[in-house]
Amino acid sequence: MIRKTEILILILLPFVLFAQDDARFKIARVKYNGGGDWYNDPSAEVNLLKFVAQNTNIKTNPKYEFVDLSTGNIFAYPFLFITGHGNIIFSDIEAKKLRAYLEAGGFLYVDDDYGLDKAFRREMKKVFPEKDLVELPFSYGLYNCMFDFRNGPPKTHEHDKNPPRGYGLFVDKRLCVYYTFECNPSDGWADPEVHKDPPEKREEALRFGTNIIVWALMN
The whole model's pTM is what? Predict the structure, then answer.
């Protein structure tokens, strides 16, 4: 294993504070209101967590878990994931809770499955009205912390010809929200029969997902 990953066990220790019953790294899918399909491709996180465990020394809990922002304990998870094709709505209470989570060291990854962009940007203004999502340069560490993505996010699905984009939101210079647009790598994490992506596309997407997790733990 390359040296970059040898330090990940130490980096992971602060995230044990988020875990209640298991020190293994886990992801929670965010169940949101608004009618969007927050639940699509439930195999995605499971496959990514298995890949991470096989390719780094991060111990993972490869289960599909979801959490409701209004009633669930998001602080039990170091990493939250949002995806979907449609509308998303945060209540004022949910926005405050998500902000507290992110300011306390939590991490949120959002992947637009085409159709989520407008609603997500609107709702993040409820969470951080004083902040804007900023596009990350290709030289940003997330793109080379484990696997090399010198051209930024990979475009897993060619829904259109627009270039893939990666955006971030920072708290005290720490990336706490990462957002991919026009690329949809999380579709590549799903079981092969779901989207019938070629093996090389799935491998690329899983490698990119690994970079996101590694970077979240390193910062």
Answer: 0.91
